[in-house]
Amino acid sequence: MDPIILPALLVMGLIVALLLLNWAVPISLWLEAIFSGVRLGLGSLVGMRLRKVSPPAVVRPLIASTKAGLPLRVSHLEAHYLAGGSVERVVRALISADKASIDLPFQQAAAIDLAGRDVFEAVQVSVNPKVVQTPRVAAMARDGIQLIAVARVTVRANINRLVGGAGEETILARVGEGIVSTIGSADTHKAVLENPDAISKTVLQKGLDSGTAFEILSIDIADVDVGKNIGAELQTDQAEADKRVAQARAEERRAMAMAQEQEMIARVQEMRAEVIAAEAQVPLAMADAFRSGNMGIMDYVRYRNIESDTHMRRAIAEGDETPQQLPSE
After folding, report:
1. DSSP secondary structure string, 124-192?
2. CA nearest 101: which of 71, 131, 125, 123?
3. How far apart are CA 49 and CA 26, in angstroms?
4. Is residue 93 classed exposed, middle or buried when 0-12, 13-18 and 19+ CB atoms within 10 A define those classes?
5. How far is it, in rounded angstroms, from Cα 2 to Cα 7?
6. In terms of DSSP bridges, do strands 130-133 and 145-157 run parallel, antiparallel, or are they unpaired?
7. With left for phi above 0 and alpha for psi between -120 and 50, is residue 86 left, alpha or beta?
8. What residues contact 311, with CB distance under 8 A and at least 6 apart?
9. How many Å separate Cα 181 from the centre of its chain?
10. What pLDDT, in 10s, does the model give residues 49-96?
11. Nearest CA to 179 among 215, 221, 214?
12. Which of 81-85, 126-130, 263-267, 321-325 has the lowest mean pLDDT?
C-alpha cells in the first residue's frame, strides 16, 4: 500500500470517530450547561441520546429556567419531550408566569401544552387581555325592524380552566346569542339605537364565560346598523298568501256556479224536449178523436181560437208588436 494513503485513511477515520463521539457526547452543550450553573453529567447527555431525546431541546430550556430562578428537573423535561410536548414553550410559559406572579406549576403547564393549547400564549393573554370581535349579528326587535350589531369582547385567559374549557368560538357564539336575545326583547329598534350600552350590560350579566377557558372582562358594542323591515315583509308575504287563498276559493265558487248553471240549462233543455215530444202527440190525438167521433169540427174551431188567443197574449206579454195570428173561424 502506498505510504501516503495509509496516514490519510487514519486521519479520516479519526475525524469520523471524533464526529461520532461529539454526536454521542455533546461536549459543547455540556460545557454550556456547566458554565450556566446547570449541574449535568456527560452520562445524562449520553442517556438522552440512547432514549432518543434531543439534548439541545431539553438542556437549553433547562439553562433558561435556571437563569430565571426556576429549578426544574431534567427527568420532567425529558418525560414531556417524549410525550410529544414542546419543552421550550412550557419553560417560556413558566418563566413568564413567574415574572407575572401567576401560580403555574410545571405539571399544569405540561398538561396544557399536551392538550393542544399554546400555554405561552395563554400566559400572555392572562397577563395582557386580548380583544376578539364577533361577526355581524342580525336580530329583529319587536317592531319588526332588523338590527345588525358587532361587538368587541375583551377576554383574559383563565389558567385553571385551560384544560377542558371551551375556546374563543364558544365565547363568540354565546355573545352573539345574547345580542340576539337582548335585541329581540326590545320594544322598538329606536330604543336599542338610543342606548346600545344596554345590550353589553345585559349580555355581560348572563355569565357567558362559564365553562370556558377565558374570563370576559367587558363587552362593547362597536357598531349597530339598521337592516330590513322584516315585520313589513312578513305582513306583505302573509297578505299575498291570503290573497292567493281568496282567489283560489273564489275560483272554486265560480266553477261550482258554472257547473250548477250548466246543470240547470241541461234540465231546461230536457224539459223542452219533453214538451216538444208531448206537443207532437197532440195532432195524433186530435186525428184519433176525429176518427172515433169524440171531436167535431166546431170543437176543432174553438181549439184553434183558444190557441190563437193564447199565442197573441203571449206575444203581447213578451213585447212583440206584430204577433203572428193563427187562422180562426
Report:
1. HHHHS-EEEE---EEEE-TTSEEEEEEEEEEEEE-GGGTTT-B-HHHHHHHHHHHHHHHHHT-S-HHHH
2. 123
3. 10
4. buried
5. 10
6. antiparallel
7. beta
8. 323, 324, 326
9. 16
10. 778 888 888 888 988 998 888 888 888 999 999 999 999 999 999 999
11. 221
12. 321-325
The per-residue b/e assignment along 303-323, b for 16 or more CB within 10 angstroms, e otherwise, is: eeeeebeeeeeeeeeeeeeee
DSSP H helices, the chain, are 5-24, 27-35, 42-50, 55-67, 74-82, 87-99, 106-114, 119-127, 168-184, 189-194, 197-204, 230-292, 297-318
What pTM value is reported for the model? 0.58
pLDDT in tens, 201-223: 888 888 888 888 888 888 888 88
Query: Torsion angle, CA of 181/185/187/193, rounded to 10 degrees?
Result: -30
Which amino acid type is present at position 197?
D
Element (H, E) at 226: strand 214-229
Q: Residue 225, SS3?
A: strand
- For the chain, first and last CA: distance in Å? 170
